[in-house]
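Exam revision sheet. Question 4 asks you to relate a sequence to its structure. Input first:
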Amino acid sequence: MISILTLIYFHYFIKKHTNTGIANISVILLSVQSLFLAQSSLVLPEMLLTLLLIITADSFLSKKIWLFIVSGSMMVLTKETGVIFIGCFGLFYAVENFKSIKTFKFWKHLLILSIPIWIYILYLFLHYIEFGSFFYKEHIGYISLEPEIVFQKIKSSTANIFTRYGRNILLFTTIIALAILLFKKEKFKSKRLILLSLLLIFSLVLFSSINFYTNRYTLPAFPFFILICTIILFQARFRNIIINLISLFIIIGVPLFKSVAETDGTGDNDLGYTEYLILQKNVVEYCEKQNWYNKQFSCGMNMVMAMRDYYAGYLIQEKKIKTGHFPQKSSTDLVIHDSTCGKHEFPEGSREGFKLIKHFESKNHWSNIYVRSP
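Answer key, structure tokens:
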């Protein structure tokens, strides 16, 4: 339902600020993206965050203050990434109106734009009172400022937004179209919308580089990347309608083919991931039936969260299973190694002293349980 609402409002938003042609193409392009399709089948916050970001961007550009406050507040309460987006709107306003920085009106409007952030701060205090921490402790451990890790996250997030699953075709054609417009010295249409979209995209990339990151976190950038591409391609289109239709078929057809064909499910950015969730639930259920609550497990990130948190929906009982991340320690009794684990997690050379006792398999996914040999 949320994914359908996202497509409907995305069309309304683009049609309102550009034209029907750009809106139609943009919605089709978004609907065939692998990550969008994968998240449509999962109950995770990224799709709702994407919808709220589009609504907030629309209200900002349309100067609908109350809608901005409501949607912006809902956005920051959906996920902390929303705070970064509110900051983007504030920065965009400040740069656009820099000449009036000494006026009361400037600071009054900036303060109004920051209301969702103040609501988020209030939420953090309530979270601290309830749980004893401002943020979710599990994710804090993944925050890193090490240059190598930051660079790797930037590389992964930019590739996920711009080039993976056939989006390289869209990027390539947009660059060519951009070159044509620059050569002809044409003025760019919807320049303000393009600049705001670029700010939102790269702010998300930078935030993802230091924060806890997984592929699905880039979903809110997709509509704005597609919007930029569609605006440029529409402006640079050929006079020959046949050539335009062939080009459109390619930039839509390639991502759609990739979405259907590349479903190994190693991450939550393709349609094959849902099969892993079924397998994962079977593994957790098996562990509970063995009454392994007092055993110490080592496993990948996905399995850790499934076995530690009852509200994730995997555990039958509210009793947690003692689970730690790879690498395994001397206290580790059992290891769960599955198809979503990285190559560095439980490689062949580190399995000495462990015996395979249970194998699970479903389509492209598998999971193995090892026990420490006596």
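Marking note for examiners. The chain has a mean pLDDT of 91.
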